[in-house]
Amino acid sequence: MGYNIVVCAKQVPDTKRITGDAMKEDGTVNRAALPAIFNPEDLNALETALAVRDAHGGTVTVVTMGPPNACEILRDSLCRGADKAILVSDRRAAASDTLATSYILSQAVRKLNADLVFCGRQAIDGDTAQVGPQMAEKLGFTLVTYLEELINVGNDGIRVKRNVGNGWEDVTAKLPALVTVLDTANTPRPYMSKRLMKFKKAKCALELAEGVCPDAMAEKGLLIDMWDLDALECDMQWVGMAGSPTKVNRILSVVLAGGDYEEFEPTEAGAAKLVSELIEEHTIG
Ligand SMILES: Cc1cc2nc3c(=O)[nH]c(=O)nc-3n(C[C@H](O)[C@H](O)[C@H](O)COP(=O)(O)OP(=O)(O)OC[C@H]3O[C@@H](n4cnc5c(N)ncnc54)[C@H](O)[C@@H]3O)c2cc1C
After folding, report:
1. What residues line ligand 1, using a CB cutoff of 6 Å?
2. Tens digits of per-residue pLDDT, 135-158?
3. Which of 65, 135, 217, 265 shows the smallest number of beta carbons within 10 Å?
4. Number of domains, the chain
């Protein structure tokens, strides 16, 4: 029996290459100054999905929500072995926070009728790790976070080893399930040369040069599907600014510098003093 598998992948600015002009004066990221890359843990999510498909059959569809140039990671996914790629793009989705993003992506998963969804644990730009769990809640799927090893997929569901920080849990979850994947889970496979030669030419309709016929591209299997919010039957009150309860009050550029320090006696009393100061400063508690 094959599985209908969806991978959610995000294109992100390469935050490891932060240089002088990477931040704007208002403290926001200058996306134009940073190369856009495949969110690293989403590559591990894709590899997990491909491994399930290779072992049990089925299809792997990669979905990304973003502007047309996010198709770059969809081409990348097709070159690595994904069966299908879909760009979710719509101006009305601008300003979506994680709640609105997860709503839109969950509508795409619904439309695809997925048995299994793999997400990265976290995106390296937004960094919230909220989108996967929020999608699972909206879809009513079983949620498993922090996959470190895929053990098996079978009649009982998906069995994985979860990394819980100070140890592991061996978990079996009923399908349909949404699983978030860690960067330690596997080594993403490289491009396959035959697929690279084919899919480097894949494009969504908005990327096509004038005069190139979308139907001709589709016939060759090179048209990346594009879905807007109408195609996903989204309720407009849950998308974009309207659907985003997060309000950014202030953005600070934090520079950590050496400062004062305080010593505590290595005694019960010293430790108690340290803990009470940390609680007072709201560092812990
Ligand atoms: C008030 C507000 C306004 C914002 N406005 C904008 C805006 O106008 N434009 C904009 O680009 N961002 C905007 N953002 C950022 C946007 O909300 C987040 O980038 C997005 O919700 C994902 O959150 P995250 O990066 O923390 O992902 P995480 O929750 O850390 O991601 C976890 C996993 O979810 C999946 N995932 C996350 N995002 C996507 C995606 N887009 N496509 C496919 N899979 C995904 C991936 O598998 C990823 O590994 C805004 C955020 C806020 C708070």
Report:
1. 8-10, 39, 41-42, 45, 64-66, 94-98, 101, 105, 119-120, 122-123, 125-132, 244, 246, 248
2. 999 999 999 999 999 999 999 999
3. 265
4. 1
